[in-house]
Design goal:
The protein is mainly α. The protein contains 9 helices and no strands. It is globular, with a radius of gyration of 18 Å.
């Protein structure tokens, strides 16, 4: 695998990470509700979750899930239920935003674990690895596993950098909203509706 292929893959990964999805929304919600530190740990959790999908894709477990209607349905509905739960939490939240100076309402481990679950329970991430990685591996490559792992590490590194960028952006948005307390409940409701919408879409969508 040459440098040109690696750079092309990196560009494709950046483009795909720019598409809004559950992970991006989760990072915005976590940062706006609990501050930059919480968002950062959530981003690390999401990044760790990506390695689960990478290992599954390389070993063929993701392909097994995606070709088994029962196994895929379990992953899909559990993920949808988790998104709906996050939406319900946002709806019932009445507290103001805790900007980076505030104390997170949850522990570091909880933010990390929730970010991890948010990524692992998203079957679209499995599709990302299954659909994109093989496009950059030559047929008959004797080192295909090594190259797949390398591409996966590149994608995960890019994802972590972009996730931290989303956290920084969310903190700036939070500071702007923080000056208008009346806007807090509307932001909470908007985040709640987005999570619920993503959960319902995941539950009803056929991939």
């Amino acid at each position: 695998m040459d440098l040109h292929t690696s750079l092309l893959f990196a560009g494709a990964s950046v483009a795909l990470y720019l598409v809004p999805g559950p992970d991006m929304l989760f990072l915005f919600g976590r940062t706006m509700a609990h501050g930059r530190r919480a968002g950062t740990w959530a981003a690390i959790g999401i990044n760790l979750g990506s390695y689960v999908h990478l290992c599954a894709a390389v070993t063929g477990l993701s392909a097994l899930v995606l070709t088994s209607a029962t196994a895929f349905a379990v992953v899909k509905y559990v993920g949808a239920a988790y998104l709906l739960f996050l939406g319900w939490q946002a709806f019932r939240s009445k507290a103001g935003f805790a900007v980076s100076t505030g104390r997170p309402a949850a522990t570091t481990a909880q933010h990390l674990w929730q970010g991890f679950l948010n990524d692992v329970l998203n079957p679209k991430v499995a599709l990302f690895y299954l659909a994109l990685l093989p496009q950059f591996i030559n047929a008959g490559d004797p080192h295909s596993v090594r190259h797949l792992l390398l591409l996966g590490l590149i994608a995960s590194a890019i994802g972590l950098v972009m996730s931290l960028g989303y956290v920084g952006l969310a903190e700036k948005v939070t500071r702007a909203v923080y000056r208008r307390p009346a806007a807090v409940k509307w932001v909470n409701r908007t985040m709640g509706m987005l999570f619920v919408g993503l959960g319902l879409r995941l539950a009803t969508q056929k991939l």
